[in-house]
Design goal:
Number of strands: 8
Mean pLDDT: 82
Largest sheet: 2 strands, antiparallel
Oligomer: single chain
Helix content: 25-40%
Strand order of the largest sheet: 1-2
Low-confidence stretches: 1-21
Number of domains: 1
Distance between the termini: 66 Å
Structural class: alpha+beta
Radius of gyration: 19 Å
Number of helices: 6
Strand content: 15-25%
Length: 189
């Protein structure tokens, strides 16, 4: 397979590297205009209509569109090429996993973010060996993640993520424990 140089330019960024034709190509404006949203079609259309931007990386819904492997057999047949590749994007309802714990309140409300930023939250937690029940908020993710439109290229500043964890975790854990203890007290436990 032929390797083609990848150069993406725009705004204040330029990314260079190599990917195969199978795995990379930027969308044309015509392809962006024709994009339906695959498995998140309704959510994508609403985001485009209201001018939504990911609160972490600031990309528009249209800037999330990228050439990638289409998940799901039915969608792959409908939207994919002979390799199962096609235009896709991910829009995720990011939530605080501490709210999943019995009696604990979430640190932030459920927030729509892009799949790359949601993945960066998980990658930072794994690399830094943070508790599974703790999540970075969208405002915190914004401080350590940089994403390039249409590429899936995500840069994570792990040092910054670690600093955020240390600055916030003790304060948040103490507050969550206090709320949990107060709730137990008032419930007569």
């Amino acid at each position: 397979m032929t390797r083609v140089p990848k150069v993406i330019q725009g705004g204040n960024y330029q990314v260079t590297g190599y990917k195969t034709r199978k795995w990379y190509r930027p969308p044309t404006q015509q392809e962006i205009d024709a994009f339906e949203g695959v498995h998140v079609a309704g959510r994508y259309r609403r985001c485009v209509q209201i001018g939504w931007r990911c609160p972490c990386c600031n990309r528009t819904a249209q800037e999330l569109i990228r050439w990638s492997f289409i998940n799901g057999h039915t969608n792959r047949l409908k939207y994919g090429d002979e390799y199962g590749m096609g235009w896709t994007l991910a829009l995720i309802e990011h939530h605080c996993h501490s709210g999943d714990r019995d009696g604990w309140l979430p640190r932030f409300p459920v927030t729509l973010i892009c799949g790359d930023c949601n993945s960066a939250d998980g990658a930072a937690k794994r690399k830094l060996r943070l508790p599974e029940w703790w999540s970075f908020s969208p405002i915190e993710i914004k401080q350590f993640v940089t994403c390039v439109p249409h590429s899936g290229k995500t840069v994570i500043d792990y040092e910054k993520a670690n600093k955020i964890w240390h600055e916030i975790s003790l304060r948040e854990i103490r507050a969550s424990v206090s709320r949990h203890q107060m709730r137990q007290f008032f419930q007569g436990r």
